[in-house]
Amino acid sequence: MLQVDFGGGALGRVRVARGADPLWEAALSLQLLQNRQESLAYDTWRREVRGALHRTGLADDVRALMPLCPPTGYFPDFLTPGRGDTGVEESVDCVLSTPRRRLAAELTRLCRDLRGPLPRSVRWVATGDVGALHWLGTTLRRYHAVAVAPYAAAIRARVADDRARRAEAALGGGAEGLLASYAELPGWHLRGTRLTTPYPEARSLQLGGRTLTLVPSFFCVRTPLALVDEALPPVLVHPLHPDPGWLPRLRAGAATPSVAHLIGASRAQLLDLLRTPMTTTEVAGALRLAPSTASRHAAVLREAGLVSTRREGNRVLHRRTPLGRALLEGAAPDTSAAPG
């Protein structure tokens, strides 16, 4: 059980994240990939992702990543630096800027829970070696592109439902009403200003006058989670509980029909995917296409002004333009930031 006391003015500082956080989703989905929890809701997703990892040549790297984020229990806080307010690239940059001392301390704690010989990937990352951190960042990005990004529409829909519920509660009852709305979740209870939730162990989360951010998560199951290091900005990540039919519905309506009729289903899916900048390889893995096909689709969209492509360091990234977003969402494009 987890207890959070919102006395002393803490209730007025509660924040609800804008959306799911990319690296919390990556870490928690990586745990789900290794266990059998909530099989009805996630087994089809597991089969799809495992197949995509093999097709994209990412399976070995993800197997090496798994000891850093085991199927249950503790995983290092540095893997989840966000609070639902940063994209994949910013979040990965935060991971890679983790001080060596913190890397070593959190991975030493992880090693106490691991059974058997210490995995090479854990030893390597713990050194803070530049090559190790480059591998970690690249693998996190590529894993997110295969296991999380293709399911963004379902994630956004569940987050939007949850956020609407919280907004309604806050408008009707202020901060107290917002907090009371979380007490409707299974196993959550509110007594005065003290919120108790299910948790893997007995714990009290001390806010100390700081803002608590409540982050919804599509791949969080059973119990909410908080960072272990209480010196870090406090977050409480809570499950969204998708129903067993979420993936078939996503596949049935993967692209807006009118847009799909106009530019084709694969290109409409690619355009939807590029709300986050991605390489051709990442796009190919996420959409289960050959890299040459993904490149050709990106080129067509770029020629139409719907996608832009630019080199950043040693990576070539595709981005959706304001016109591409407007086409997908059926709204007028925002040209305020567009070059003249």
UniProtKB/TrEMBL annotation:
Assigned keywords, A-Z: DNA-binding, Transcription, Transcription regulation
Domain HTH arsR-type: start-end pairs: 262-332
InterPro entries: ArsR-like_HTH, HTH_ArsR_DNA-bd_dom, Metal_resp_trans_reg, WH-like_DNA-bd_sf, WH_DNA-bd_sf
Gene3D superfamilies on file: Winged helix-like DNA-binding domain superfamily/Winged helix DNA-binding domain
SUPFAM superfamilies: Winged helix' DNA-binding domain
Protein name: Winged helix-turn-helix domain-containing protein
Organism, as annotated: Streptomyces siamensis
